[in-house]
Amino acid sequence: MTIKAVLFDIDGTLVDSNDYHVAAWQAVFSQTGATFDDQVVHDQIGKGTDMLVPTLLPNTGAAEQDRMGEEHGRIFKANYLEQVKPFAAAKDLLVRVKGSGRQVVLASSASSDELDHYSALLDAREIISVSTTSDDVEKTKPAPDIFATALKKLSPLSANEVIVVGDTPYDIEAAAKCGIAAVGVRSGKFSDETLTASGAVALYDDVAALLADFEASPLNG
To answer: N or C: lower Cβ tally within 10 Å for the chain?
Structure first.
């Protein structure tokens, strides 16, 4: 079937924010006395608090998880959000997708406040058809909820009429659980092996490379 909508992750895909999220989480963990190598934290970026914290601190109760998530959000917004920049050609790719007659969807584990900020940063509010955030779902990536919710909003489109673009294995795994194919971008600093093992149907260095190859890419299927 023809692809009729493209679901974009935001952090690490459209905007260069992953390292800032690592720094914010490290600040949160330091408050609890926990110490992790930056790479260990990075390898969990792409998950929401509900998935990230239990992986690194498995004995953390639900209330403490919520507190840590709120603190991460506070630190990130106070210290890092304004430093985040879009990747080159991020808006251009969104424009290209819309210009091809397809719907542009933002589907992120970020909060709705962050999504609003990034929509403005990308100057993309008039381009976006549908969006979903961590505020819309019970569980974040790699659970399927975010993409499943987006797919419901895109009804009557089916899973094989949409495609995901993401930078983490959690994007790709979440998409697969919904029967949606996913393209991986290396801009989030995950290895090719990790992205391919998660089921990526194609890999690109970044959204600029994906735009340059748009005609031949899975997005144009």
So the answer is: N
Nearest alpha-carbon partner for 107 in 125, 137, 131? 131
| Residues 200, 87: Cα–Cα separation, whole Å | 20
Q: Among 203, 146, 207, which residue's Cα sits nearest to residue 177?
A: 146
pTM of the complete model: 0.97
How far apart are alpha carbons 20 and 117 in whole angstroms? 15
Structural tokens at position 43: 């390898």
What is the Cα–Cα distance from 188 to 17, expressed in whole angstroms? 9
Spell out the residues 6+ positions from residue 124 whose beta carbon is closer than 8 angstroms to its own: 91, 94, 104
Interior angle at CA 59, CA 55 and CA 64, nearest 5: 90
Ranges assigned E (strand) in the chain: 5-8, 103-107, 128-132, 162-166, 181-185, 202-204
CB–CB of 201/179 below 8 Å?
no
CA torsion 21→24→26→30, rounded to 10°? -160
Q: Using alpha carbons, select from 151, 161, 158, 166 the residue that is nearest to residue 47.
A: 166
Helix, strand, or coil here: 106?
Answer: strand
Q: Which two tokens stand for residue 53?
A: 């914290």
